[in-house]
Structures are given as C-alpha cells and as structure tokens.
Known about the structure:
16 strands; eight-stranded mixed sheet; Rossmann fold
Amino acid sequence: xxxxxxxxxxxxxxxxxxxxxxxxxxxxxxxxxxxxxxxxxxxxxxxxxxxxxxxxxxxxxxxxxxxxxxxxxxxxxxxxxxxxxxxxxxxxxxxxxxxxxxxxxxxxxxxxxxxxxxxxxxxxxxxxxxxxxxxxxxxxxxxxxxxxxxxxxxxxxxxxxxxxxxxxxxxxxxxxxxxxxxxxxxxxxxxxxxxxxxxxxxxxxxxxxxxxxxxxxxxxxxxxxxxxxxxxxxxxxxxxxxxxxxxxxxxxxxxxxxxxxxxxxxxxxxxxxxxxxxxxxxxxxxxxxxxxxxxxxxxxxxxxxxxxxxxxxxxxxxxxxxxxxxxxxxxxxxxxxxxxxxxxxxxxxxxxxxxxxxxxxxxxxxxxxxxxxxxxxxxxxxxxxxxxxx
Length: 390
C-alpha cells in the first residue's frame, strides 16, 4: 500500500530497483516460481542491488527505520553492564552481528574498554563495514584498533555473541493453512511485468512438520478463511550454527517478536511480514524491490529450541523494558543528566522513553540470552523473566 507522502525515487534509485526486478524475473523465467524465502533473500541481499547490499543509508532519520543504538548511547551503556562480567570468564571478545551504523559497537567499546580483548564485527557488506569503521574512528578513536571485521563465520567463538535487530532481517518462509487444514507454501511468480504470489502444496517435510507444530488447527477451531504466517528455518539454522561454535561465553539477541503462542495466535491470521521504506509501513512485499526493507517478527520459542538443541543453557527471556530497567538505565540517565530542566536531559529522556515505553519498543522488543561455561549475575533477567512462556 503506497502513500502520496512517500518521496519519489531519483533516477539512480529507480534504475537499481529495476535492475533487481529484472534479475529476480530472470531467475523465475529460468526456474519457474520461486519460494517467497528466495525472493526475500534476493530483495535484501542480492549483490549490488539488495536492500542491505545496495549502499543507500537505511538507518536513522534519513533512512527507513530507527534502531535502539542510534536512539541513545544509554542503550549500549546499559547493555554493557550485562556484558562486562562475562568477558573475564572468556577470552574477552565481543562478536557483533548486524552492526548497522557502528553506533552500538562504538558505545560498547567505550564502556567495556578495560575488559575487552577484541571486538569482532561480522559484516557481509564491504560498504557497511567501511561506514562502521568511519563511525567508530570518530566516536571511539582510541579503541578502534580493537575492532576486527569478519566477512565469514570464524571456526569458533570464545566471548559474547551479540545481535540487535539481526534475526528479523533473515528470509522467512510464508505458509498458508487453508480452511480445510491443508498447507500451501507461498511462492513468487512473474507475469505481465509484475510479481505475484503463488500457492503450491507444502511438500518439504521439515517445513511441513514445523507448520504442524506451530500453526493453529484451523479445522478444530472452525477458523473462517485461510491462515497465513511465517516459518523461520534460516533463523533456526543460524542460531544452531553459532551455538555449536560457541566454546565458552554467551549469546544475547535483541529483537521484536513473540513466543510461539503469541506469534501463531488464531487471530494473527496474516503473520507479521511487513515492509519499511522512508519511515512508512509497507504492506506490499513487491513495492520498490531492493529499496524496501522486508522483515518479520522473531519466533523466540524457535530460537530457544535451536540454542538448547545445540547444548547451550537458556539464561533468560524478557522484554526490552524489563531488561533495561533491571540493568539500571534510569540510574545512568540520572547520573549523566543531573539537571532535569535542560534541553539535553529532555532529549535523552525522550530517547529512553522510546526504548522502554510499552507502546514504543519496551514491550514488543524482547531479549534472549544463552550461556555456556560462564557463571555470572544475569542482572538483566533478575525480574520479569518469561522463559516459562516459551
């Protein structure tokens, strides 16, 4: 669904989007309709033209969305309180996935400088890596030497693996459970110059079993109409792989999402897939392909299962507001801005409110942590842990 308020594209942007459309259309012409997961993968990560590989600025006021680290350094400083006690029990490394602008890395470098050995950023995009280096050089110049960029997974991890809004950017499968109980997998075709959704019987045994496990029983519930939602095999495999490579330390994931019961509620009958473009919500997955972020919420029950299946301890699961409260974000705000009648305090307090308010990021965003071979006070989950809901 478009809006007259969405800015027009310049010629370079339009050409880039058109080039990606032709690339995807050519693949469909050669192979037939492709799974929606493949379309989403190309839309986000195709070389040169994908959303995350195309080079345009995506994060912040001038981009398509805002993330917690760009709102306030207080987010990263609070998170550092949970990471700091973990580092001495490991090799002292932090591994960040999806570092975006580099804002969280710069904040954590400054906050953890005394106990940090190295700060690894796993980044597939050379253009993003260059931006991150420049940001860190400007905001943490004395610690920039501790940053090491990786374009592939290391053989093992010894330290803290961290990801803020990473899992939601992974391609998902769209599956439909019809009123009669049958399952279809959603594909993307291309006809008469346009992409279109296609539905084919769900034959993949792993996807079929996952759909049986998670989707509500539309027949017994007498659910009127089709029930469409997402499955997350890429997220599951990613977490499983990292967990198997984690020899000692922890994983902390922050993202928007639900436990399975909330995610696959019978009333949530069209899933959570959504697009973001120029701070507008987009409901058409084919709108400005390559220039619109496509995302789906995280099924944290599935993330928990993936980590535990690889032998990790599930430490905690709570919402972002509770996590930040437990770690003292309000104390940090008060300490850094003792004068509460100043514009700087007002701006900082507004940012903190966005991070913790129920109707902003506080409730929808969740935090999940795993551990292996570490014994620390997990203050972030001291109150309000929700593992029992998983």
